Amino acid sequence: MEGRFFENDNPYKPGSMIRMLPQCSNCGLDYSYEPGFYIGAMYVSYAIAVALAVGTGLLTYFLFHPGFAVIVSAICGVLLVSSPVNFRLARLIWINIWVKYDPERHLKN
What we know:
By secondary structure, the chain is mainly alpha-helical. It has helices at residues 41-64, 68-98, 103-106.
């Protein structure tokens, strides 16, 4: 990928965490595909969160053998810290699933 997708590269900056650019600066691809398009990214985000939760839970259990409360706390901490990255990654995955890049159509001349 050559162009930027979000206004700010830092996902942890609260004011601009979710702001997307209107189009690709490199090829001109319109990022606002249709109204409500990114609602489907919630399913991708959910899958990422489940994978992180299961991975964190298993890793915590097998490395430290703690109690249930510690495992749940570790999972909640990882999900909380990774949520801005998860949000952005889910949107990127979603647009890559549904929008096929056509260089002849999207290249700026």
